[in-house]
Amino acid sequence: MTDWTPLATTGDLQPGDRRTAFVDDEPVLLIRIGDDYFCVADACTHDGQPLGDGPIDGIEITCSRHGARFNLTSGEALCMPATEAILSYEVQARDGQILARPAKVNDNRSATGGAGQIDGEVSAEPAEESRPASEKTGPPDSDATSGDDETADAVEMIESLREVIDPELLINIVDLGLIYDIRPEHDKVTVDMTLTSPACPAGPQLVQQAKLALEKLDSIETAEINLVMTPPWTPERMTDDARDKLGIF
Ligand code: FES
Question: In sequence order, what are the residues at sequence separation of 6 or more whose Cβ sits closer than 8 angstroms to the Cβ of residue 218?
Fold first, then answer.
């Protein structure tokens, strides 16, 4: 097993902070959430985008480029267009230092990483149970299309949704973090989408434009947009670029 690599001291990161570092010459992202530390490879398995500026919700991080989500504990890819897990790392706090090493890789390509707690002397924990398949979002089980086709379609859909601009904030709905899930099935797609607030006056317009943006694609006959308010939207869901444009730091 690879040796532990020191990434930071326990005083370096406050809750919510993150930093990039290297383990065995590979770029990694160390994140502190509350008193827990998570460490994952700093490269999206879809197209290599660094994850450092990706919005974090709970223990999930979203790639800011095309919207793939990953579990920070297991590295599991939770939605398209990524289909492969990112490597996760075991983390422990010891002698005032935060250390990490690559986690054991399971058959399903997720890694058994874990959060290291700041108050624990040695506190690498086993990965939490993966969510049951019925609760997972992401690629359909259908074998009607190849993985590459599905990924290409997902990217095409996300790029098309990026053409839908919130008329008040002048940011597209993908970078605003309004798109929660995209579930393609043959020539249909179901999208879970939220609004920045339940009373958003542009809501009906955005829903309609999202539907049209998808249905103009050759691969999509019907797009169904589900407006969901849970979990509620927060500014943390925006990409860094969107936050910069809005002057939110
Ligand atoms: S590079 Fe991350 S989703 Fe495409």
Answer: none
At 174, list the tokens.
């993908």
Domains of the chain: 5-133 (2.102.10.10), 147-246 (3.30.300.130)
Per run of 10 residues, the mean pLDDT along the chain (length 249 residues) is 87 94 94 95 91 91 86 88 88 94 61 52 35 31 46 84 91 92 91 87 91 94 93 85 78
Residue of the CA atom closest to atom 4 of ligand 1: 66
Write the residue with the smallest CA distance to atom 3 of ligand 1. 66
Which of 45, 47, 161, 175 has most ligand 1 atoms within 8 Å of CB, for mutation?
A: 47
Q: What is the DSSP string of 90-143?
A: EEEEETTEEEEEEPEEPTTS-EE--PEETT-SS---PPPPPPPGGG--SS-S--
Q: Which residues line ligand 1 (CB under 6 A)?
A: 44, 46-47, 49, 63, 65-68, 81-82
